[in-house]
Amino acid sequence: MNNPFGVLEFLHWSHEWNNYKYSIKEDLERAVALVKEIGAGRVRMDFLWSDIEPLPGIFEFEKYDNIVELLNKNNIGILGILNYNVQWASKSGKWNCPPNDKLFISYCQNVVERYKDKIKYWEIWNEPDSSIYWEPQDGLVSYCALLKKVYPAIKEIDPEIKVLNGGLSGGYRSVNRLYDCGVKDYFDILNMHIFDTPLNPDAVKAVTSYPKLAHQVMVRNSDKDKKIWITEIGCPGIPGNIETKNWWFGENPDELKQAKWLKQVYTELLRDKNIEMVFWAFFRDCKGHWLDGTDYFGLVRWDFSQKPAYFAFKESRNRGRSSKHQNIDK
C-alpha cells in the first residue's frame, strides 16, 4: 500500500434508478482514464448481490468482469463491497434488511473465488450502523453475527485477502459497539466514514479527531496494530449556475470550497500514522439521484468536465508522492 489516495465511484451503476450512469462503455472507460490521470490508487465499488445472483444459483459476472479488467489494465486497485439483500432471498422484500446468512455467504464465496487473483480487499456491507443501509438497527449485533460467519468463509477461499468491516457512519461510538460485539478477529482493517461541512470552522478538528478516538478504542481492545481506512469523506461542490436542495449538513459548499476542503482533509488525515487510505466520495457527480447537494460530491461533473476539486486531488496526490520520495532519499 504505497498510495493512500482512493475514490468511491459507482462504476457498476447501469440501472434505471441511477439514470444509467455507466450503461455506455465509453463513459466507463472515460471515468477510469480520469481516475488514473489524477493518480488514485484504488477505487471503492459495490459488487451488488442483486446484479450478480439475480435468481437463486444463477450467477452473472459479465458486467463486473469488464469493470475489473478495465481497472486492472490501468493499474488501479479495487476495494470491493459485498452488499445488500436480493428480493428473492429477502423475507421483507427490502434490499437493506439483514440477509439470510447461508445465501449471503454463498454469494460472497462465489464473488471472492471469481476475483481472487485480481482483488485482495473486500468490505462486508456498507454502513451497517445506519438505518438507511441496515434495518432494523440493533446496535450492530446482527451485523456482527453475520461478519463472524462471512470472514472465515471467504478467508478459506483466499487467505491473502484483507477484510474490512462495513464502513461505520456513527463515529467512535460505532467502533465501540463493533468491539463490544466481539468481532475483533473478524476484520483486518478498521473502516470508517467521516463527513463534515467545510462551512463549519471546526470541521478539520472534528474530522481528524474521529480516527484518533477510534484508535483509542482499538488500543483498549488490544488491537492497536490494525490500520484505519476512511472509505468515505467528501462534500458537495455546487456549480454557480445550479440550484438544488441542501445536503444533510445544511448549506451546500460551492466548487471552490469543495476543492479547498479536499486539500485540507487529505493533508490532515494522512498525518495520522494509523490511517492507511482515504477515499473521496465520489468521483463523478450524479444526476438527480439524491435530489440535493449529494448529487454534486464528484470531482468531475456529470458531463466529465473537471471541477477545481479534480485538480486539488491531483495536486495533493503528487505532493504526497514527492514527499514520500524525499523521505526515501533521506
Structure characterization notes:
This protein has 330 residues and is an alpha/beta fold. It has a single domain, classed as TIM Barrel. The protein has 9 helices and 8 strands. It has helices at 25-38, 49-52, 62-73, 101-115, 141-157, 171-180, 203-220, 255-269, 308-329, and strands at residues 5-8, 42-48, 77-83, 121-124, 162-165, 190-193, 228-233, 275-281. An 8-stranded parallel β-sheet has the order 5-4-3-2-1-8-7-6. α4 (101-115) links the parallel β3 (77-83) and β4. The longest helix is centred in the C-terminal third of the chain and has 22 residues, at 308-329. It starts with a strand and ends with a helix. The relative contact order is 0.13.
What key phrases describe this protein's structure?
single chain; eight-stranded parallel beta sheet; disordered C terminus; alpha/beta; 330 residues
Secondary-structure element series = EHEHHEHEHEHEHEHEH
Strand order across the biggest sheet? 5-4-3-2-1-8-7-6
- What CATH architecture do you see? Alpha-Beta Barrel
For the record, the count of structural domains works out to 1
Number of alpha- plus pi-helical segments: 9
Q: For this structure, what is the CATH class?
A: Alpha Beta
The shape is globular
Class derived from helix and strand content: alpha/beta
Residue-averaged pLDDT = 95
| Overall helicity | 25-40%
* Radius of gyration of CA atoms, rounded to a whole number: 19 Å
Please give the alpha-carbon distance between the first and last residues. 20 Å
CATH fold group: TIM Barrel
Largest sheet: 8 strands, parallel
DSSP strand count: 8
